[in-house]
Every structure is written in C-alpha cells, then in structure tokens.
Amino acid sequence: MNIDLSEEAAEYGRQAVRAFEAAGGDDLVRQAEREPKRRAALVGPVLDELGALDLDPRGDAAELEAAAALCRAAGYFAVPFPVAERLSRPAGADGLLVVDGARPAAAVAGLDLSWTAVTLDGRRCDAAARAPEGPPRTSAFVTGLDLRPAGAGGECARDLALGLVLPCWTLLGMLDRAIDLTREHVLLREQFGQALARFQGVRFQLTEAEVERSGAEALAKYALWSVQDHRGEAADDALALRLAAVEAADVVFRVAHQLHGAFGFCDEAFLSWLSRYGQPLRRLPLGPAGTRDRLTRSLGRRGLTGPFGEARERAAR
Q1: What are the angstrom distances between the C-alpha of 80 and each of 146, 243, 258?
Q2: Is the pLDDT of residue 298 over 90?
Q3: Residue 263 and which of 88, 100, 236, 245 are 20 to 30 A apart at CA?
Q4: What CATH code is carried by the domain that includes residue 242?
Q5: What average pLDDT does the structure give for the chain?
Q6: Across 302-314, average pLDDT
C-alpha cells in the first residue's frame, strides 16, 4: 500500500497553485464577495487552463490523485468555487454534493449548474439551489437545496466516499495556508524586543497545530487510496477522514487566530478570509458532533481499519 501522491499528481498541484496565484490568488475570493455573479467567471478560466474538468477521478486512479492535488491548491487560496464538487460529478450532472437529508445546503449559491446530491444514508437525489438568503459576506455562498429523489443507483456508496474525500483535500489546503500565514506572522511580529516565534509558548501552539494538520494529511492520503482501491470500507474511511479534518481545522484555526490576535479577524489578514470561507467545509453536511454520530452508527461494532483503526486503538490505550 502506497498512500503518497504520485510525482505527476504533486507537480499538477504545484502548477495549480501557480495558476490560481497568477489569476489573482488571494484576490479571487475578495472579488467574488464583491461581485458574486462573477465567481464562476473568475475561476472557470483557470480550471480550463489546467484541464481540470477533463480529469476522470472516478475512472482513473492517477487522475483521482491529480484531482485531490487540485482541490488542495484551491483551498490554499480559498478559491470561491466548488472545485471538489465539480470534480466528483457523476455522469449526467455538473457536480456532486453530499448533504444532510434533513437540512440540505451547500455553498453553491448563484451558479447555473445541475447538481446531484447524495445523503449520508445513501439516497441519491437531484438538487436545485434556492435563491441565497444573504450576501456572501455572511453566507459564504451557502444556500438551501430542494431535493428530488433520483433512485438509489449503483454508485451511491462511491458517490458518498468521493464526495466526502475531495472536499477534505480542499480543507487541507486551507490548513496548509493557515499554518504558513501564522508561521510568517510570528516570525515578523515582535513583542518585548524579540520575535513572537522565539517564545516557547508560541512554539508549543504552532507545534500542536502542525501535528493536527499533518495527521489530517496522512489520513487524507489513506482515504484517497481507499477510494482508489474500491474498498468496501471507503465510505467509512471518508467519514473518518472528515471527522479528523474538521477536528484538525478547529485546532489549526484556533491557534492561528490566537497568535494573530485581533488582526486575524480583519480583512487585511487573509486568515480572516480563510476562516470565513472555510466554514461551509467544516459545517456541511454535518459538523464534528454530527459527523462523529453518523460514523459511530455506520460502524456499529465493526471498528475502523488501517490508520484510522490504529489511531483509535492508541487513543483507547
């Protein structure tokens, strides 16, 4: 079992970072918030340049890795477009959304696209986005969805696994950036005549955040391999990854905001934008408590395999 991304996929991710940076980088999300109707126009040309929508993550293992690397690059800049959801699309739809059947919602406001949704209990639906109830500043493009049953289908389990894993790679890119921004901040900011990075307490906090981020990265690679390998446990592995990723995000953003202080909540700090536009990934389809409950009910008494199970056993000891 080799869970590391191929060099080709890693290079594709680096090219994606450069492409998003050349297209505006951090300004992409700022422009989209000012002009919500243009967000597809802001990101679409970059995806076309990268050949993103020609990738077949469902049918080719190498292209699934490339899709994951692209999602991570999009997360690094908080790209204001559902890249992961577009890449995981099934045949006959423009994108795939994993939703809570009781309160379906997604960050797809204002996009003229057709969506397939899969609920956490494995029901496939056609989804239509409602008109947004608030501006992007307060909604982060999240809007409610109207669902219409589309039959169970034979791909629901794979839909669920893929639709959970790729957005976690987007969130991972956000955690990468939050760590980078915080490291840069504590190296430059001085207090009592020395850089913040020289204080032992600051180093401990950064180490805690990096341990969480690197742990989520390892589990993201394993869950991606599980999907590639068509494992029967892939959906459970994806749920476990989601739980680990949102818990890591809570730690990373807590530390990042603490070390940035009030400045981290200002528009001048890109951390503020990352934190705000990362909320849909962290809260939908369910937050940490709901995801943990869903995973527990899905597993029953079976337990997890692979590094997920090993981590659970270490915690129990």
Answers
A1: 22, 23, 25
A2: no
A3: 245
A4: 1.20.140.10
A5: 90
A6: 59
DSSP state of 132: P
Q: Is residue 134 part of a domain?
A: no
Phi, then psi, of 8 in degrees rounded to 5: -65, -45
Report the sign of the C-alpha dihedral through residues 208, 213, 217, 220, in that order: positive
Three-state secondary-structure class, residue 1: coil
Q: Is 230 helix (H, G, I), strand (E, B) or coil?
A: coil
Q: How many domains does the chain have?
A: 1
How big, in percent rounded to 5, are the helix, strand and coil portions of the chain?
Answer: 65, 10, 30
**Is 232 domain-assigned?**
yes
Kindly list the distances between the CA atom of residue 144 and the CA atoms of 97, 100, 230, 284, in Å, as whole numbers in the listed order.
12, 11, 31, 11
Distance CA 181, CA 165 (A): 25
Q: Identify whether 226 is part of a domain.
A: yes
Whole-number pLDDT of residue 187: 85
Helix (H) or strand (E) holding 118: strand 115-119
pLDDT tens figures, 244-270 = 999 999 999 999 999 998 888 888 999
Q: Which of 25, 106, 74 is nearest to 286 (CA)?
A: 106
Q: Which residue has the higher pLDDT, 164 or 194?
A: 164
Report the candidate in 273, 271, 275 with the shortest Cα–Cα distance to residue 30: 273
Residues 164, 170, 171, 172, CA torsion sign: positive
Residue 278 lies in a domain: yes
3-state secondary structure of 116: strand
Q: Specify the DSSP element, H or E, that contains 295.
A: helix 288-299
- Which residue shows structure tokens 């951090």? 26
Domain that holds residue 238: 157-316
The answer to whether the CB of 45 falls within 8 A of the CB of 22 is no
**Contact (Cβ atoms closer than 8 angstroms) between residue 154 and residue 124:** no
